[in-house]
Amino acid sequence: MTIPLASPTVAGMMGPLDKQRVDAVPGMQTSLTTVQAAVTAAQAGVTTSIQQGLHTIWLPAIGMIGRVTSGPIYNSTETTTNKVLMAGYDFDPNTAQYGQFMVAMPKSWNLGTVTAHFVWTALTGSGSIIWGIQGLAVGDGDALDAAFGSAVTVTDTLLTASQAHLTGATAAMTIAGNPAAMDSVIFQVYRDAAAGGDTLTSSARLLGVRLYLTIAAQTDA
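The structure corresponding to this sequence follows.
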């Protein structure tokens, strides 16, 4: 006998004659009730649990704050025809500039390394850019004036001005501060303008960062 997953109860599927037949068979009603309970439990498990493994957090550039010292400049431009906004922070081609995000990490995070992709564009110019990112975990009672972890970088080439660009993934980034459950992580992003491989001749506009982390529990309970 097949019990549809959408059925609220076994009794709801049966007419009077069917119920008489079930009641006439010793143990049959109990068996059907047990099956229905198992189906209901399985449905609950499917709808309430989160698959463990690699997950993404999107960090839009408008949620970033430019540093007081050597910070990028926020700008918003719209495209000519369809008026699509290109909102983000412009990073200078000659001087290293830094911006920061503060992210309340999920309790289900495994406290391990993370990787990142950068989404960016440039309104003019040509060449390649080097983006970098580093992290610092802070929790209850931790000092905020602490050193960031080692930075990881990724190089990407401008294809066409005013087009969206997605870099490859960075190497695995170790976050400083001995991450613990319920910590927030301050991510610092920058353009490595002084590096020889950064040849983009214009400012680059950061639109956002895709952060990848591993979830090791099904809930944040």
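The longest helix spans residues 28-48.
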